Amino acid sequence: MSETFVSFGEQGAQLTYGSYLRLPQLLDSQHLESDPPAHDELLFITIHQVYELWFKQLLHEVQAARDAMTEGRLWWAQHLLARVHVIERVLVQQVDVLETMTPQDFLEFRQRLAPASGFQSVQFRELEFLSGAKDPSYVERFRGLTAEEQDRLGARLDEPTLWDAFVDVLRSAGLDADSDEGISASLRTVAHDRSQYAAVWALGEALLQHDELAASWRARHVVMVERMIGAKSGTGGSSGAGYLRSRLPMQYYPLLWELRSEL
Ligand code: HEM
Ligand SMILES: N[C@@H](CC(=O)c1ccccc1NC=O)C(=O)O
């Protein structure tokens, strides 16, 4: 049976798959530093570009979830955070792909990468700031930021976080949200009366899940780093795995974690 193609919403028949997705630009954006080309450098570039595309999507979703919480659209916030979790699981699993590269094959092009490093990922830091872990010292320690990137990070430091929006949700539910002690007491109230505060409880759990998945990524990344470069210092100038291990205990939402000890 032959397939028939029908015209569907063609506005002047200009759009194609490749032009819509900007494939010429996208697929011409992998430029190797190694010369002669190291076989695995294409994988290394591709994986980072895929991460950055997902970071962009995550920023879009987390920002919208924050705004939805502030405006009392709790179902929408919950829906978007569920999507955030699925993407974050993909980001953790994606480490498997890069781990098909051996340390020897990485070392073929590693020295060409310095002083560049994942430490300079602006979107990664934006996500941390937007989630709730604002640390202005990272903006100062960034080397080689463009003015536009500096502005983006500055704006993230100034705007409300996902946690700020959740605190608004507590307040709108008539709960005390004026101090950490008040918030902790409110979280206990919510936890002990989940049917009364179903949407608030679900959002708190969604935030905790986001925090846990970010921690999973950091843990997976540092083990990969130890596998690739052992105890060598990083191309970005840090101690390497030592620095990354020091970041493992970070929590976006310590009060949500403390709640578990109080139940
Ligand atoms: C061969 C694979 C990789 C190695 C050996 C590696 C190594 C490192 C090291 C040593 C650091 C510390 C900064 C420095 O001094 O360089 C770092 C930071 C970082 N890397 Fe990687 N990395 C790898 C892959 C990735 C991938 C695929 C991503 C995904 C985007 C990534 C994202 C980051 C981020 C965001 C940081 C900053 C973390 C923080 O400040 O908490 N890395 N990496
Ligand atoms: N920091 C890594 C190199 C590295 O992985 C990297 C280099 C340039 C751009 C992104 C990178 N990915 C994560 O840090 C290293 O020290 O080997």
Ligands bound, unique: protoporphyrin IX containing FE, N'-Formylkynurenine
How many individual β-strands?
Answer: 0
Proportion of beta-strand residues: under 5%
Order of SSEs: HHHHHHHHHHHHHH
In terms of structural class, how would the helical and strand content be classed? mainly alpha
CATH topology: Methane Monooxygenase Hydroxylase, Chain G, domain 1
DSSP summary: helix tally:
14
Distance between the termini: 64 Å
Instruction: Calculate the mean pLDDT score and round it.
Output: 96
| Coarse morphology | globular
Low-confidence stretches: none
Radius of gyration: 22 Å
Q: What's the CATH class label?
A: Mainly Alpha
How would you describe this structure to a colleague?
- The chain has a single domain (41-97, 118-260), classed as Up-down Bundle (Methane Monooxygenase Hydroxylase, Chain G, domain 1).
- Helix content is 64%, strand content 0%.
- The protein has helices at 17-20, 23-26, 41-70, 74-93, 95-98, 103-110, 122-131, 137-141, 147-158, 162-172, 180-192, 198-229, 241-246, 254-262.
- The longest helix is centred in the C-terminal third of the chain and has 32 residues, at 198-229.
- The protein starts with 16 loop residues before the first helix and ends with a helix.
- The protein binds protoporphyrin IX containing FE and N'-Formylkynurenine.
- Protoporphyrin IX containing FE (HEM) binds next to α3, α12 and α13.
- It is an enzyme of class 1 (oxidoreductase).
